[in-house]
Amino acid sequence: MWQGIGVSAGRGVGRAVPIMTETPLPPDWSQPLSEQERLDGAVERLRALLSTVGPYREAPEAMAVLRAQLAVLNDPSLRAAIAGALADGATAEGAIEAAFAPFCAALSGNGGTEVAALRDSLLQLLQAPSAHSIPDHINGAVLVLKTVTPVLLCRLQGQRPAAVVSENGSYACHSAILLRALGVPAVFGVEDIAGAVQEGELLLVDGDSGTVTVQPNAQDSAFLQPLPCSGVDTEKISSAGGSNVRVNGTVGSVTEAQSVLQNGGDGIGLFRTELLFMAQERPPTEAAQLAVYAALAALMQDRETVIRTLDCGGDKPIGCLPPEKEDNPLLGRRGIRYCLDYPALFKTQLRALLRAAVYGNVKLLLPMVTTPEEVQAVRGLLKTCAAELEQEEQPYRTVPLGVMIETPSAALTADLLAREADFFSVGTNDLTGYVMAADRGNRAVSGWLDPFRPAVLRAVEMTLDSAKKTGIPVGVCGEAAADEAWLSLLAEKGVASVSVPPHAIAKMRRTLPPTRI
Ligand code: PEP
Ligand code: MG
């Protein structure tokens, strides 16, 4: 465990994304720009970044930080010093160094550090556009850096990390103020962590105690409290908005789950676990998966938390899994087919899920099911895992098992699957693709990818009818779940819940039609 200073409260769990921005790259002399043009371009880019106030608009302290940074950048004496150095033949980098030096020296302590950070950001922006750039996979990840600059936080562009860890910085520094405004947990002053943490390692960041735990497990995550069995209300119905359809969120990280709660969601209707496996060198261990699932369950408490087992293959290739050479991956060994063929891999996930179920109201969902035998096979594996955990004296809880209806076979045999499953979730994305024989990723056939097509609606109706006869609830996930017009066509048939992106929850609450289940 690493110790630093908690500068922004709360806890975040996610994969580490180290960003090494310390050393500016050498200038790119292949650019045919004059030094003046390079400098003007960098200043403009920096000004534009600092002016993108977006998430900070409602936070006066954060706005003051951005204004202070802009004021330094626009300071006439600084600009004159840069222009003078350039006129004397300095490079753009040299001119920035020379002009900022007296400013940094004159401002002791925090002020000097902030101005130096601004200088470094400007130097970075002089480089090729890729330098100092932010990876595009930091949603729900933990950023680990030597120094977090306000400019770097302005470059997040809508991405939201689970937490931020930095070697430098203090509670009062500008970046800490911005992170508090964003509500992102952060720990600063963690010596030597940037080079020590591996990309993809799971980190638990506690912005209250100032600690960073590498590869945490549920036991050492003190905030995880087992939920008493009696507290679980598995069919909690929300009546907000006049509809008895539960409005759940579709997410891929614990951070996103937090925004489901912030947006008033009833629970999690789809947690895509494959995101934990992507960009990894090895599949995550049981302990690593447990930490994420348990954090999710503990966050959601007695709200239903539907976690989908690994949905790999097809349009979701996963580099760390044994390679599949298939001519037609969309009709290949996807989702549950792959998992059943690799029982050791699958059991690792099932064990983590059973153990995480102790902390909340967890339900399992199986992707790409086509036959009842697949569900029976999973039940068999779950029994084996439960027996193992029993013997090892590991706490676990049995969970409801749901089936995704996203293949024509599943819809056509929904009556048979309903005998095996505790609930259905209609995956309208794949169901539409497979029913209409149109590849989700092929724009040329996007006209066929329309969930309003009668064939798709009939497939969903068949599913709802079969489920009703057997008495199991049906949810809808996939894009169509957020389309009120589409849902209104099925309202009479009894959709128990929808799962939509967190930002769409409020809209669905307002517009969902009353449903008779
Ligand atoms: C679906 O297919 O509708 C679905 C929700 O799953 P995914 O988009 O992850 O394949
Ligand atoms: Mg799918």
Explain what you see.
With 517 residues, the protein is an alpha/beta fold. Helices cover 40% and strands 15% of the residues. The strands form two sheets. The protein has an eight-stranded mixed beta sheet with strand order 1-8-7-3-4-5-6-2. The protein has an eight-stranded parallel beta barrel with strand order 9-10-11-12-13-14-15-16, surrounded by seven helices. Strand 7 (202-206) and strand 8 form a beta hairpin. The longest helix is centred in the last third of the chain and has 21 residues, at 372-392. The model is unreliable at 230-241 (pLDDT under 50). The structure holds phosphoenolpyruvate (PEP) and magnesium ion (MG). Phosphoenolpyruvate (PEP) binds at residues 270, 272, 311, 406, 427-430, 477-478. Phosphoenolpyruvate binds at residues 270, 272, 311, 406, 427-430, 477-478.
Short overview:
The chain contains 19 helices and 16 strands. It is of the alpha/beta class and 517 residues long.
Tell me roughly what share of residues is in helical segments: 40-55%
| Number of H- or I-type helical stretches | 19
What is the C-alpha radius of gyration, as a whole number of Å? 26 Å
Heterogens: phosphoenolpyruvate, magnesium ion
Instruction: Give a short account of the largest sheet.
Output: 8 strands, mixed
Percent of sequence in beta strands: 5-15%
Shape, please?
A: elongated
Q: How many angstroms does the end-to-end distance come to? A: 50 Å
Mean pLDDT: 85
Helix/strand-derived category reads alpha/beta
